[in-house]
Specification:
The protein has 70 residues and is mainly alpha-helical. Helix content is 66%, strand content 0%. It contains 4 helices and no strands.
Length: 70
């Protein structure tokens, strides 16, 4: 049970860390996702969680976002 809590806390903290990094990095550096800061994830899990946004699925993702957030 404590492992689940630790994973949840790292998910929250890594999300905050990625926002801070992406706000303060210059345009030349790469934007990082929360998975890049989360030490509880393996390299395979980091790649698996990140959806690839392409021109083909951008409309679908936009529609899903509008369903959730109005």
């Amino acid at each position: 049970m404590s492992e689940g809590r630790d994973q949840h806390v790292w998910c929250v903290v890594s999300a905050v860390m990625s926002v801070i990094h992406n706000c303060h990095c210059d345009s030349k550096s790469k934007a990082l996702s929360p998975d890049d800061f989360n030490p509880t994830l393996s390299k395979e899990e980091r790649k698996r969680h990140a959806p690839l946004v392409t021109d083909d699925n951008l409309d679908v993702m936009r529609d899903e976002f509008r369903k959730i957030y109005g």
